[in-house]
Amino acid sequence: MALRNRRCFGGTVKTQILAEASSAIEPALPQAVGYVVVVVIGFLIAFVMVLATYVLKKTAGEDNRKTEMFMTANRSVRTGLTTSAVVSSWLWSTAMLGSTLVGYNFGVAGPFWFAAGCSPMIVFFALLGIACKLRVPEAHTLLEIVRIRYGTLGHIVWIVLCLINNIIAIANMLLGASSAIAALTGMHIIAATFLLPAGVVLYTFVGGIKATFLTDYFHTFVITVVICFFTIKTFTTPEITSIGHMWELITTAGAQHPVQGNQGGSYLTMTSKGAILFGIIHILANFGLVIMDTGFFVKAFSAAPQAVVPAYITGGIAYFAIPWCLGTLMSFSALSLEGTARFPTFPRRMTSTEVSNGLVLPYAAIAIAGKGGAVAVLLIVFMAVTSTISAQVISVSSIISFDIYRQYINKNATDGDVIRWSHIGVVFFGLFSACFSTALHYGNVDLGWTLYMLGVLTCPGIFPTVFTILWKKQSKTAAIVSPLLGLATGIAVWLGSAHALTGAISVASTGETLPCVYGTVASALSPGLYSVVISYARPDNYDWAEFRKEKLALDSDTDSALSTTDPVVAGTSGSLDEEEAGRRASYEANKAKFRYWGKIAAAWSLATFFGHWVLWPLPIYASKYVFSKNFFSAWVVVSIIWVWGTMFVVGFYPILDGRKQILQVWRGLDNFVRHMLDKERSKHRCPL
């Protein structure tokens, strides 16, 4: 147990032990169920999304053959749908598997720090999103902003940084989800790894970003309903009759298996060295994952201007409850039931490899709900991983089409050309992600290892990117050099610490907690120092108006043809002057509103960080308090109420907010069906 509590478990147990553990546990579900969920349900959802895309085209005029619709949904997505998409973007399979993992290892502090490591930067992104809307209203990707400000070299550096971020993120998702699906159904882990992206690629290929928003909504609603089911089912288990009874069982578990680094060895304390170190890694890594993930910017660009700040603030706060509540309940269910015949591994405890592969959640679900629990976990893991794969795929697709093809291969690309390369990007990255995750699996890399070390690679761009959007003094040299120096610094500190502390550099040593903490902190903070020093040595004073001089929005092929052939359109410069005048008028009209929303976003960002990282947890940490039965009961009740609120926000608010468009689509669909029926009747009508 001490081994489990002090390290991140990446590669700590030989493959032979993994094989023995796997053979000792019979999957709760038949292998056929795994294929039905991954293949049949995956393609069924894809079919529904393709059908929805067709219906929206016929009834609401949303044509995904046009780039602005495919990549940014015509920048018209409302607050409710954007909120569910924001929650979905962070509702990774690793959020559910990882929060239960750290809860099992560190107690109540683990899920709390997992949640606190996500919500502040989601809310902070409201500030970045509205700043981008203000400064570059026609942008499609973060990289377009970088290119305009820093030129080709800066653009290439950010392309590399963003692609690294997306590759690490999707590998982290697939490793955890595939391991869980394999454990639940006996499905081969590599089959799961390749089949999971298949349906996603199909509906993203056809529907673009709007299909991603719709699947985000559906998947997130289903996941939160299942989580709410677990909040009830946990306390109807005969061995866990109430929250107070769970407290008694966890108190006993802490006495039998004390947690190294926790106050009194208890699971019921926020005074946990391992948990707070994980929290530091997690919040820095997540800032990197959000800020360097072009998918978050694509969703911000797709949202209507008035929806960005409310959606990201609401989504960030709503999201907090999911890892906090689910991680606490399911990890404590595992600890409570591990010594009973209900638990899949009985009479032994879980091995560190099983824990590191994210199997705490599925094993706990089986223990409290049998095969129904296994089906529920299989469903939410599938929903989570496919939803976030969709976001990652559209993100990389935008880089390939806009930032590589349009910029360096065909500067005169038409709307159709960009769409074609967007499709190529979707297929390519879906296949590449499966291959890369397979390579990591056979390299004995698991969820625990990637969960801890990913910040080393994702964090170098945090400060340079934030400065690019918010600080006009950052110079071109600083922007290009600082993330590269930061990446080199982070990797050097990470590997150097691993060697100094363990005497070797291996998967096991680089997965230790302290090397990952040191490497992540160095990777995240050093670029900020480098950028400030270089910028003041060679200062800049960027004019934000430069961003609006380049027209980024693409005309459709029809519009392009018209502009070159119609003398009324193409023959006079007055029309171009009028267009530019219109753009300036639109910008001036929105400027005051954007600044108002920016102030709100900044205030909420600070409040969320101080609330979740200072005012709430640190007094409990410093007091070395071990939760009493009443305090623990209140802790769990608040988390349950919060997660039910999240379910209503992501499930019903988008319907309420989008009721007008839903009615529009319904009427349009009714008219379309009537038209088709009338057309069919006219064919069979007898001539006079």
From TrEMBL:
Q: Which Gene3D superfamilies match?
A: Sodium/glucose cotransporter (1.20.1730.10)
Matching entries from CDD domains are given as:
SLC5sbd_DUR3
The record's InterPro entries line, in alphabetical order, gives: DUR, Na/Glc_symporter_sf, Na/solute_symporter
What cellular component GO annotations does this protein have? plasma membrane
Q: Where do transmembrane segments lie in this chain?
A: 33-56, 77-106, 112-132, 153-175, 181-206, 275-297, 317-337, 358-383, 421-443, 449-471, 478-497, 517-537, 596-615, 635-656
Region: Disordered; residue ranges are 558-577
Q: Specify the protein's topology with respect to the membrane.
A: Multi-pass membrane protein
Q: What would be one Pfam family of this protein?
A: SSF
What would you give as a GO molecular function for this chain, any one?
urea transmembrane transporter activity
Q: Does the keyword Transferase apply?
A: no
Cellular location of this protein?
Answer: Membrane
Q: Which family does it belong to?
A: Belongs to the sodium:solute symporter (SSF) (TC 2.A.21) family.
Name of the featured protein: Urea active transporter-like protein
